[in-house]
Amino acid sequence: MTGSTPQPGPANPGLRNQAGARTFFRVAGCVLVPLGLAVCAYGFISFVRYDGWDGPPASSIICFLGGFLVFAVGGMFLNLGFGGVAARYGAGETMPVVRDSASYLSDGRGIMGVGRTVDDGSHAREATAAGPYCRSCGVRNDADARFCDSCGGSLA
């Protein structure tokens, strides 16, 4: 276990070399999609242009189906490589709507901390705290606190 390589676990989900895998999927997908389309198009065109009497050649059908399979695998690789970007975009589009909906449905009091627009004094201590945030639970503590007020974890 090296100090520079993040290890998978609850704090860091994913692969050991997440960035390398992402780059591989993006590059492989960008190569396989056009290749699959080209082979699929070649198979289709050779099938359509066949003018024999004994049925279409099997090679054109194999090229068409094989090209489609390569195209599908390339699309899957692109989906894996750009999945994080798509998820961040989706979250950026939907979370403001969720926040506004929670504020509307709860008359400004929020649902589980989302959508709070009314200050009823219950979070006054958090607003006045000026110390460090807890690494375990994320609660902001007093400036002179050595342990978290919420979970009891060490702040050092």
Topology:
Elements: H1 18-49, H2 58-81, H3 83-105, H4 124-128
Helix pairs in contact: 1-2
Would you mind describing this structure in some detail?
Residues 132-155 form the DUF7577 domain. The chain is mostly helical and 156 residues long. The chain folds into 3 domains: 18-81; 86-118, no CATH class; 124-156, no CATH class. The protein has 4 helices and no strands. Helix 1 runs antiparallel to helix 2. The longest helix has 32 residues, at 18-49. The model has no long low-confidence stretch (mean pLDDT 79).
Number of helices: 4
Rough outline: elongated
Largest sheet: none
Q: How much helical structure, as a percent, in the residues?
A: 40-55%
- Overall radius of gyration: 28 Å
Separation, N- and C-terminal Cα atoms = 24 Å
Q: Which class do the helix and strand fractions yield?
A: mainly alpha
When the domains are counted, the total is 3
Question: What low-confidence regions span 5 or more consecutive residues with pLDDT below 50?
Answer: none
Q: Beta-sheet strand percentage?
A: under 5%
Number of strands: 0
Q: Helix and strand string, N-terminal first?
A: HHHH
Keywords: Membrane, Transmembrane, Transmembrane helix
Pfam family, one: DUF7577
Domain DUF7577: 132-155
Transmembrane segments: 24-45, 57-78
